[in-house]
Amino acid sequence: VQHPMIAPSILSADFARLAEEADAVSGADWLHVDVMDAHFVPNLTLGLPVVRSLRKATDIPLDCHLMIEDPDRWAVGYAEAGAYNVTVHAEAAADPVALARDLRAAGAKAGLSIKPGTPIEPYVDVLKHYDTLLVMSVEPGFGGQSFIADVLDKVRTARRLVDTGHLTLVVEIDGGINADTIGQAAEAGVDCFVAGSAVYDAADPGLAVEKLRALAAA
Ligand code: DX5
Ligand code: ZN
Question: pTM, whole model, 2 decimals?
């Protein structure tokens, strides 16, 4: 079994204490940073200045999930701000192949995300240019929503394409991941599990990360 990666989402953390909240999950593989612009999704969170500061405040690689319009214009800034992985939405990117190239040239891994209703098939060729596929298992915009199990068919498709050598991707899932749902996602072939409320609503976020990882490996 490969090492299951856990990426706590700071969307459920205390935004006034981000450095401490990152420290609380120091065993995490990536720190998931949800950037929302109140246009692509009906919520507003944080942007480049916060990512720049967070980069200095933690050694955990930052996984920036851009739920924004016009990522072709903004995404490279997050790579330059020191994000390890920058994920854009397939539904929002005008030229996702050029965007992946620009992200890599700026020193980041390139991620492509698809909403629950977006099929994977039209993006298989585009995904050859990407390092990460982020399958949304809730409608993007808010933490604490219920897991949509239907998206696991897309995870299985991605897993098959990776295992047969057609794609080289970290398969990541985001939304509603907790102790009850992580097992089925792991079974479908997810490599990296984002968890917001399941980590930061726990009494001990660091322990919650280790528990989730153990369940994903089981
Ligand atoms: C939702 C965000 C998620 C969110 C997940 O739009 O992309 O990363 O933080 O939160 P939970 O794990 O609580 O569903
Ligand atoms: Zn996210």
Answer: 0.98
